Amino acid sequence: MKLPSHITSTARRRAESASDRTPIYAMVGNPNSGKTTLFNALTGLRQKVGNYPGVTVEKKIGTTWSQHGKPIQVIDLPGAYSLAARSPDEAVLRDVLFGRREDTPQPDRIICVVDAANLERNLYLVHQILDLGRPVIVALNMMDMAAAAGLKVDAAALERALGVPVIPCEAVHGKGLVGLRLAMSRVELPLARHRWDVPAAVAPAVAELQASLTDNEGRAPLVARAEALLLLTDFDTVRVAGSRPLSARTHEILGNWRQRWESAGTDWAATLIRSRYDSIGGLCQDVVVRTREQGPSRSDRIDAVLCHSFWGWVVFGAIMTALLFSIFSLAEGPMDWIESQTTALKGLVNGAMAAGDLRALLTEGIIGGVGPIIKFLPQILILFFFVGLLENTGYMARAAFIMDRPMSKVGLNGRSFIPLLGSYACAIPGIMATRTIENAKDRLVTILVAPLMSCSARLPVYLLMIATLLPGDAVSAGKKAGLMLLMYALGTFGAFGFAWLFKRTLFKSAPPHMIMELPPYQPPRLREILRQMLGRAWLFLKNAGTIILAISIVLWALTTYPKHPDPAATPTEQIAHSFAGQAGHLLEPVIKPLGFDWRIGIGLITSFAAREVFVSSMGVIFGVAGADENPTPLRDALRAARWPDGAPLFTPLVCLVLMIYYVFAMQCMSTVAVVKRETNSWRWPLFQIFYMTGTAWLFCFVVYQMGRSLGY
Amino acid sequence: MSARTQTIVALAIVAVTVALLVRIYVQKCRKPGCGGDCGALSPEVKKLQARLKK
Ligand SMILES: Nc1nc2c(ncn2[C@@H]2O[C@H](COP(=O)(O)OP(=O)(O)OP(=O)(O)O)[C@@H](O)[C@H]2O)c(=O)[nH]1
Ligand SMILES: [Mg+2]
């Protein structure tokens, strides 16, 4: 029999001398117990950390060094309350531990990160992990939080009870890292002393499944035993892309036993789970001492306001308003500075070079395309500062809590709100975050509506349109922020509306109950927020310097060639004659009812790559007209644009309609690719493009025609 | 620089850009996902993954 390649390679690796091999550690624990914080501290990486459950949804690999300078690989995993996976992120954890992932080696050793302030709940997973028979180190994290809650956790007693190293830590303050690294550097780690005896009546089933898992799936004996226990106690239905399915033989054995138990009328699964809880309860009695009786904690007192059915909403509204207001008022100065710099650069190039195609490429294509985008960097920074603040303090989970009621009206629950809220930054991490949703239908609905939330890529489009619509400094920042708020609200209500519709039609299922822990509030860690902010700023600039730059260059070529036969043709006539102009003219009949001309049409086509490309395309197309010796800001160029009959193109109504178009239309290739991967088919991304862009067209049509008939 | 040279240089830049765009697109097709654009994957991790592959 030929063994699958992963098994032979594992065997080969085992055969090599143990000291040569890089040991692999997995970070495992309940959600929000500080795994990623610890992982970052060990590896020096900067994976995302946040004070709410479900931040990490995919495995991440890093390297750290042992006390002896040898490399150690560490895998950071999503959190879970139990190995029985109920949602895709938990399935990632289960699959990595059982060696079911194709792309990840099975870890040799496991670091169980435990929240000392909630020891009993956290130990359930530890208990299951110990069954795997792998060397385990327990990192007793959040000792500061436990002390603040009036708990004294005796690490030595826990170590004695479990028989594995227990290291008290405070990951955020870097405490306990030395001890943890020392434990990780040990050549031999003791195996758990604790043994959990399976009730005798279940033993034959466990044995038979264990044998099949060892033979057919190639598991190590103890892992096979743990997996057998899990298969018997929980339905093992959640699957994620990249996980290896169980063999048919194992399925068959499992089905037989289930049937047998069902006909006998005994609930062995419940018995198994109960006996585990009893064993943990006994353990905690000896380990945790309550030093003082606790009244309501500080977090409880804050929650009395933030989760209040009225004040909660007031605060939520205030936060959103503050965000939008600061986007307009704080960013003004830096924006103007960036704009003046790009204008100066344009002038410099124009002065230094003779007229010609290369000069045009530099000024109109490159500076004209990338400049207007970079201008919005300050706003992006502000947006991500706020997002970081919400994530860091623990407000995110509260937002989900107060949103639970409106969400349940549309048939989802508050948990779906975290991915939606995350989509304000970018739909892609938002869609990834839906992995924490248990119900597959709800997850799909959330994925389908997430791109309707106004992401940061729409910000440049909105801002450009608002600048064109509400000219100059005469208009107060409040008015502009109000218009922006309207767009955000439109997207959010759109998302809710479609979720309601989908839950009524395509994905009928009962509204699920939300079970989610509200983590204690933490003071915002400014360094962490700044780091995340700078990371995003860097990505934004990188994007502007690569994809957007490239698209601008290509678009410039498409608007420049073929050249108009008459050398004295106006820039607009030239673009109309070009390839891009011809494509835009083809599209014009479709978009003319929305008040858009062929030049806007070119922007709509190019911005399918990413929404902010619209701004750079407008820069290339309309910047040409205003170029020459004294370049004007883009918004003035837009305001000067005319239809052939001399009527202004960017009327206030058209600006508004364009913004509405970008609220709804699915204009992002990266999102399409991620939806394809997360849903594992082309059906849903295609459906999404169709329904979103269709809605955008219809909505814009209605608004434009109504506005026209009202005389705007 | 004469107008003719300018046109040739400009067209050469455009050609290189198109080639790069095609390359990025093909890479995306082969490895779907955000390609790190979303911040869910740090650059350090990507470097590490590349090293691990080797
Ligand atoms: N007070 C205190 N806070 C901590 C400690 N360790 C981590 N935190 C905070 O706890 C929160 C959660 O940390 P993460 O590292 O994201 O937790 P995680 O286990 O990776 O969470 P998931 O990825 O959602 O499973 C963050 O706000 C951290 O700053 C600690 O020892 N003490
Ligand atoms: Mg994490």
| Bound molecule types | guanosine-5'-triphosphate, magnesium ion
* Overall number of domains of chain B: 1
Main β-sheet, spatial strand arrangement of chain A: 2-3-1-4-5-7
Which whole number gives the mean pLDDT of chain B? 70
Query: How far apart are the termini of chain B?
Result: 46 Å
Strand content of chain A: 5-15%
* Contiguous uncertain segments of 5+ residues of chain B: 33-45
This entry's quaternary arrangement is heterodimer
Query: Helix tally of chain A?
Result: 31
The total number of structural domains of chain A is 4
- The helical percent of chain B reads over 70%
Overall form of chain B = elongated
What is the general shape of chain A?
elongated
> What is the radius of gyration of chain B?
17 Å
Q: What percent of residues of chain B are in strands?
A: under 5%
**Strands of chain A, count:** 8
Roughly how many Å apart are the termini of chain A? 77 Å
State the main characteristics:
heterodimer; A: 712 residues; mainly alpha; Rossmann fold; six-stranded mixed beta sheet; 31 helices; elongated; disordered N terminus; B: 54 residues; 72% helix; binds guanosine-5'-triphosphate; binds magnesium ion
